[in-house]
């Protein structure tokens, strides 16, 4: 009499038993929970990605009559990610008064702006008045209170507060010629 192969339940080489399936399901649930926790919970987007998706195009923001804050950032930048919740609060607090524009330095689309604003470190913030004229720059991570002070000054049309790493943008307009006895830079008299 020929022996027939077992259905696999008792031989250990066939389909999984109920206990093995339960263990695999538990492992899958634990892995899914860990992945969800690592990605920031049930939030559909982290603050940095949310800000980037809501961001106006730079030419639109500079031409719409509102002050503008531009952040040059990167997805991999820890300082940018750490600053994102404060930037999101700032955008919500000044919604309709201040445009927040996010430009990812890894996106080749923004290369002309990266060169124009001489971005050599991130995060870099550029501030513009309601007329779209540059009024200041901040390089490096900013605290929530720094961001609030900077944005409040831009919205009010006031000079930026003097904080470390923050500079005013000076005008390069032609200065009026003066007459008098002022010596030229290379004169010896």
Q: Mind sketching the topology for me?
A:
Blueprint: H1 18-38, H2 47-54, H3 58-63, E1 68-73, H4 78-93, E2 99-104, H5 111-116, E3 124-128, E4 134-139, H6 144-156, E5 166-168
Parallel strand pairs: 1-2
Antiparallel strand pairs: 1-3, 3-4, 4-5
Helix pairs in contact: 2-4, 4-6
What does the largest sheet look like? 5 strands, mixed
Counted by DSSP, the helix tally is: 6
Compute the CA-based radius of gyration: 29 Å
Q: Order of strands in the sheet with the most strands?
A: 2-1-3-4-5
Task: Identify the CATH architecture of the domain at 47-168.
Answer: 3-Layer(aba) Sandwich
Q: What is the name of the CATH class of the domain at 47-168?
A: Alpha Beta
Shape: elongated
Q: Distance between termini? A: 124 Å
The percent of residues in helical segments reads 25-40%
State which percent range the strand residues make up. 5-15%
Fourth-level CATH superfamily of the domain at 47-168: Glutaredoxin
Mean pLDDT: 80
User: Based on DSSP secondary structure assignment, what is the total number of beta strands?
Assistant: 5
